[in-house]
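User: Hi! Is it possible to get a structure for several chains at once, not just one? Here's what I have:
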Amino acid sequence: MKLNWRLKERLLEGLLNIPGLVLIITIWAFPLIVLVINSFYTNIPFGGHVQEFTLENYKKIFTDPFYVIILYRTAIIAITVTVLSVIISYPVAYKLARIDEKKAMFLLILIVVPFLTAVIFRAFGLIYLMGNRGVINSFLHWLGFEGISLIWNQTAIIIGFLNVLLPYMLLSLYSSIKQVNKSVEEAAWVLGANRVKTTWYIVLPQIKSGMVTGSIFVFAIAMGTFEIPAILGGMGQMVIPMLIQQYVSYMNFPGASALAIVLLGFVLLFVGIGTRLVGGKMEL
Amino acid sequence: MAEVRVQNLNKSFGELKAVNNVSFHAKSGEFLFLLGPSGCGKTTSLRTIAGLEEQDSGKVLVGGKDVSDTPVHKRNLGFVFQNYALFPHMTVRQNIEFGLRMKKINKRYYREKVSEILSLVGLEGYEDRKPDQLSGGEKQRIALCRTLVLDPQVLLLDEPLSNLDAKLRKRMRVELENIQNKLGLTTIHVTHDQEEALAMADRIILMNNGSIVQEGTPPEIYEKPLNGFVADFMGQVNCYRGKVVKVTDNKVALESEKLPRINVLQSDGKKLKEGKDVFFMVKKEGIKINSSLNSSKEINSVEGEVLVASYYGSHIEFICGFPGKSGQIILKAPVDISPVPTRGEKVNLQWDYDNAFIIECFA
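Assistant: Yes, the chains can be modeled jointly so their relative placement is included. Here is the combined structure:
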């Protein structure tokens, strides 16, 4: 039988989907399922685990104050980083979107270049800048001021995250502001709105989805990154990714799995709430 | 209603001098057109009046008050953008109410004002639609509503009709004229469409390369163009550069690369000298086409050959050429001429002297 060309086309489409599907199943869906199953196994302290169903791993996370504090700290840091990154990126993104495209491209490349450096190097670099005898404090001492505490605390983690994550927010705000027609803003001015009101009533509502997209990146990475808090926060500022690393090194895979699932749940929850709050749609 | 005065306006963008020492005046209640090809500075001039561009030098006065340094949002001028610039995330009602909100007008009046202004443009019941549910013409009218609801002193229109299709454009012309008439608003309308300007304007200011070339009523500009640019831009298609070769009494003989030698009656008062470079123009509505060659009528006439004859229903358009010359003449003839000259036929073209002009070239 000769194949109809429509049928052929559909077959081809199906065939082209297979590599992607295989990849998604093997590197994403399968590990996630294993993770979920693992999180319900029973841990034997310092002795691996047995395949016995238990809710103990989750119960501990939500009832033991040690874990609750860590969970809370992780969320607060991620939220602060997200909000600050929007506030800091917006004016820059706006300016970039409104200048000559060639200039903007050049500046954007300058912003993206640090991306090419590993996070870990940048974190160590920040120690030299913000450490107790780092560049900033040495300068303050030289001026005769008392030094400020910029390392081994939450401020250090937040600054470290901003250093790494601002470009994500900036790029996603840039591309959505670029789509706001300049004459729409001008129309608002002519109708009697000053700059602030135009931004608030006209520009921001139109770039909601860009804001949400940027926030998802920033928030998820800020919640799930190990290096920044480990290097800049120190042991006194434990966050969930650091805890997971500890568990793994103690061979407590069920506990680590449960933490990972809780982390994922939190990211989804906050992203959902955030998206609802601004009334935008998730666009990835 | 307020008058608008623009005095010695200058504006450059980098190297480019967009507006070069431009002064003009829109009388109270007047429908003034700024007309010109793209890049002539008309839009920049309009945007400077609104405050959307800052002038390098010069003044803008609205109702006698100098607003040159007043920020945009305090000028109380209406501005309609070429792309309408409706707020895409707001409904029609919210779009129209936006200005009222910014001017802190009592909320009590919103509903009444919105429905009043919508009925002015015949779009009652559109309050809850979003801009992307409107057609081009409807968007245009909402953009107008949004501006008019604030009772602006002056209405500034930046190519408001150029994004509409030809039929709708003609309808919106009439509507816009009616609204302007009804409200008696001082209106400055920017366009590159000379037909639009001729049809709607009380007065036209024609610009080119950042300067004003000519100003006047539509008939003044169409019928008495000051130079070749004006004639060409206003749709005078038959415009030729040539040289005066002989002057006898009131008769002038012209020679040109494009046309055979012609003899033209000189209009009164103008004294042309031999050897002068001139533009010669003849209106396409003012030429009579004759199948019979009549060499005795050698004044205000030329002999040619029909290249194309196109029937348009209301008239027939002929394009005639001249053997050995590169020029063409376009003319409109009534449909009832007989016999109708056909392609390739030798014809005699003739015009009355007030349908033709000779202008000295200064450039």
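Strands of chain A lie at 42-43, 49-50. The CA atoms of residues 131 and 142 of chain A lie 15 Å apart.

User: Great, thank you!
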